[in-house]
Amino acid sequence: MHAFLLLCSLLLCNGGMVAAQKKIQKLPDEGAESPAQIRTPQTLSRGWGDDIEWVQTYEEGLARSKHSKKPLMVIHHLEECPYSQALRKAFASSPEIQQMAQEDFVMLNLVHSSSDDNMAPDGHYVPRILFVDPSMTVRADLTGKYGNRMYTYEPEDILTFYTRPVRFKEEAIGES
Questions:
Q1: Model pLDDT for residues 156-165, shown as the tens digit of each residue
Q2: CA 35 to CA 58: how far, in whole Å?
Q3: Residue 108 pairs with which residues in a beta bridge?
Q4: 3-state secondary structure string, 109-145?
């Protein structure tokens, strides 16, 4: 009798916990039609290139850059920003950019601002791409073509974007 009561108590507690967990996570009930969608976890690439090895943090990127003697490319973006989405699509669909990112740079993409004030020399807008050389110097001289947002690139700038980092990579190797 005691075992039966204990079993019933455990089942009730477990059912209550499952119900509370579904409410917290806002999961749809089985069989119920609900507009709620369960989002799958994203990789560190966040759609910028799954074959690229991405670092998780700015600090990790600086350490890897210094150790590998490769410059760090930091992409600041927001998931919901249409300009970020367009640049991400162009970046991810360019084989040349993907190869350059894989081979020549330590890569980081951030959906939040870095703690380093040097990473926002002209403001905290998105998208913006900045480079840090292996000596941990932010290369503010590597800019895009827009005077009001110096570190932004648009999808049609992808070829310009490709030549600037290549030149920077060559300069960084020459200084090592």
A1: 887 776 666 6
A2: 36
A3: 74
A4: EECCCCCCHHHCCCCCCCCEEEEECCCCCECCCCCCC
